[in-house]
Task: structure prediction
Amino acid sequence: MGKIKVTQTRSKIKRPEDQKRTLLALGLKKMGQSVEHNATPAVMGMVDKVKHLISVEKL
Result:
């Protein structure tokens, strides 16, 4: 499995609580913050849930 870099590009204000919690589970607390994760099925599921709020790069 490869690694991915996830960056929050849009605000979580006025988003459902489950999407806010998904961003926190990914380690994203602020706009513009980036984190690296292994591309596991669990992480890719979280990425898919909030794909409209983040950008993803393969490393």
